[in-house]
Amino acid sequence: MVLGKVRSFTISYDCPNENNIPVYASGDSVSGRVTIEVTGEIRVRSLAIHGRGQAKVRWTESRNAGSNTAYTQNYTEEVEYFNHKDILIGHDRDDDDSEEDLTTIPSGRHEYPFSFELPQIPLATSFEGKYGSVRYWVKAELHRPWMLVMKVKKEFTVFEHIDINTPLLLSPQAGTKEKTLCCWFCSSGPISLSAKIERKGYTPGESIHIFAEIENCSSRMVVPKAAIYQTQTFYAKGKVKEVKHLVANLRGESLSSGKTESWNGKLLKIPPVSPSIVDCSIIHVEYSLTVYVDIPGAMNLTLNLPLVIGTIPLHPFGSRTSSVSSQCSMNLNWLSLALPERPEAPPSYAEIVSEQQRRNNLATTAVRDELERVFEGPLFAYIQEFR
């Protein structure tokens, strides 16, 4: 008998979203199918799947041991979130290849469905960093007698949702700093910086409104600036490794001696980045807004305001409760608005908008709809981009 051959061996997911991207959260059901296409008949001992999720950290450091000798030290750490195995065909015994225990797969294309649930515990968001990663995948193995095991592996994405509509993440962040420049026995006036943002939690695509006061009483020309940083922190064997990325930045006007500058809601947009990771014991991903004064020939005057990048955006009017809304310094005065007792009928569209204005509005609406589609799309658009 001529043995058949496996032409293709693949894994596909039953994606839970309309964009056919495998994105899940803790407690979700992960389902899909293993597809085998064969020419001729093949005999199979087993077809198994292995679903797994883990965070892993690894880096190497060189150390000097003296006498011109050096050695390298490896730092590794792992956290396993789940480990699921299932047999789709046959059995998992490697020592039994009798004919009655083998399964025959005829020529053609065959699909074998699988399904399992992610644990209800908090899972770290999928992430790829310089010294570590958080990965989730399904691996399929096809075991045949007297042949090498065929393997195929396919990853999927997990998002641990962070709802920014909480009192902690809706609270304003503010700070003040001052610095006096000294040169030998001479000193100039102080440089002062005060900054405030409306809340701590944001989602990718939003813009941060920065309120700041910068006063330059020194004798130097200074420049106020702001930047968003992502800090990746990796932990292994009591050691810490840190990587910092610039996410976005802006520059204010140069200030000569005696001048001041006010930022009344200066906008700094958050690009598509990974959500914050705070629940993983070996990998943290954190964000901060740094408002600073660039001082030539001296250390910058720096003010750091912590940020949390979430996945569930702000509700239209902030939180659902007025007690939470009162903690925000946003310019939302909707609570004080009152409807008239007898509302008048509104004027017709043609009475207040000319034909040229109508055409301009249509063009503006099309652009705005496209931007909303980009920034309010599914969560897979927020996968971190510092690979």
What report would you give on this structure?
This protein has 387 residues and is mostly beta strands. The radius of gyration is 29 Å and the shape is elongated. Mean pLDDT is 82; it is low at 318-354 and 362-387. The longest helix has 21 residues, at 355-375. It has helices spanning 167-170, 322-325, 349-352, 355-375; strands at residues 5-13, 23-24, 29-39, 42-44, 46-66, 69-90, 103-105, 108-117, 127-128, 132-143, 150-158, 173-183, 186-197, 201-202, 207-216, 223-236, 239-251, 260-269, 283-294, 301-309. It has four helices and 20 strands.
Provide the descriptors you would attach to this structure in a database record.
387 residues, mainly beta, six-stranded mixed sheet, five-stranded mixed sheet, 4 helices
Shape by Cα distribution: elongated
- Helical run tally: 4
Structural class: mainly beta
* Order of SSEs: EEEEEEEEEEEHEEEEEEEEEHHH
Average pLDDT for all residues: 82
Strand content: over 45%
How would you sum up the major sheet? Answer: 6 strands, mixed
The radius of gyration computed from the alpha-carbon positions, rounded to a whole number of angstroms, is: 29 Å
The beta-strand count equals 20
Low-confidence stretches: 318-354, 362-387
Q: Give the helix proportion (percent range).
A: under 10%
Question: How far apart are the first and last residues' alpha carbons, in Å?
Answer: 50 Å
